[in-house]
Amino acid sequence: MLCCFDRQAAQHAVPKAIAPSRMTSHIAPVMEVFASIQGEGAYVGEPQVFLRLYGCPLRCRWCDTPKSWLVAPEATARIDAKDGTRRAPAGASAFEAAIWVAQCERGAPRTVSVTGGEPLMWPDFLVALKSLLGRRRLHLETAGAHPQALARVVDVCDHVSLDLKPDFDMEEPVPLWPNDGTPRTREEWSAARRGCLALVADRDACAKLVVAGDRAPEDYAYLFDEVEHCAPRLPVYLTPASPVGGTPAPTRALVDEVAEMARDRDLLVRVVPQVHRLMRWP
Ligand code: SF4
């Protein structure tokens, strides 16, 4: 298995069988499929099935799923089906993934949250998956770095949960393949975020912002300015950072001040901790 922090190896980490040619196919690298409750955002508390895909060019300092960053050739998917957990080769068609989703349900069909990693690295897989999910809703969790990919999938998504990623909380990105469209500079990030916000404005969508403890409230102001400008009716969920990788949790005063900054812009803001973590669910 490739080391998650081996950046040079990451340039060659996506096997030919999966990407980049697979960006335009119905195949994506599945990391895990499991049933749980939604722990964040607008649908917090809803029993869902989570489909986590490998592959993320970003490096958020509080990332709690670094094993999702790379797509190693020998990667496998963990399928937590109701009749037992098993593994399968990670490279899966949308059809296989839809079957795995059904096998993880404990009863009636559930909403399917596709998360990562960064699911927008595999847009055609998402489009194909939606056509195979029957009456299940398809929710997308994305970092909001790839507006062109979002434009391709937004019409098949019943809900989009868009992270507002502060550039100061990210290390240098590691492209999954050359020219994978990942923004690098603050200007490129702003353009990408504005594009994504415009696409989800007035849809069933929300924005999420992780507030970490070692920041000043005004550090987050430019993100709220962008939401106010591009998607003023989009609900914004503030998530106090969980202490991961040395990232400190925020004080109540900091979260309060950040929430007030959003309210000053007439944004609909809610403070919600990661409920699945509180419950110690996956
Ligand atoms: S976008 Fe998600 S998976 Fe990628 S580094 Fe950030 S938190 Fe981790």
What does this 3D model show about the protein?
- The chain contains eight helices and eleven strands.
- It has helices at 7-10, 94-104, 123-130, 147-153, 186-200, 221-230, 252-264, 275-278; strands at 27-37, 47-53, 76-81, 84-89, 91-93, 111-115, 138-142, 159-163, 205-211, 236-240, 269-271.
- Mean pLDDT is 90; it is low at 1-17.
- It has one domain (11-278): TIM Barrel (Alpha-Beta Barrel).
- It has 282 residues and is an alpha/beta fold.
- The radius of gyration is 18 Å and the shape is globular.
- Strands 1, 2, 3, 4, 5, 6, 7, 8, 9, 10 and 11 form an eleven-stranded mixed sheet that branches.
- The structure holds iron/sulfur cluster.
- Iron/sulfur cluster (SF4) binds at residues 56, 58-60, 63, 65, 68, 116-118, 143.
- Iron/sulfur cluster is lined by residues 56, 58-60, 63, 65, 68, 116-118, 143.
Brief rundown of the structure:
By secondary structure, the protein is of the alpha/beta class. The protein contains eight helices and eleven strands.
Gross CATH architecture: Alpha-Beta Barrel
**Can you list the ligands bound to this structure?**
iron/sulfur cluster
Biggest sheet character: 11 strands, mixed
User: Helical residue percent?
Assistant: 25-40%
Q: Describe the global form.
A: globular
Distance between the termini: 23 Å
Give helix and strand order, one letter per element, not per position: HEEEEEHEHEHEHEHEHEH
Q: Which range does the strand content fall in?
A: 15-25%
Mean pLDDT: 90
What's the CATH class label? Answer: Alpha Beta
What is the number of strand segments?
A: 11
The low-pLDDT segments are: 1-17
Helical stretch tally: 8
> What is the fold named in CATH at topology level?
TIM Barrel
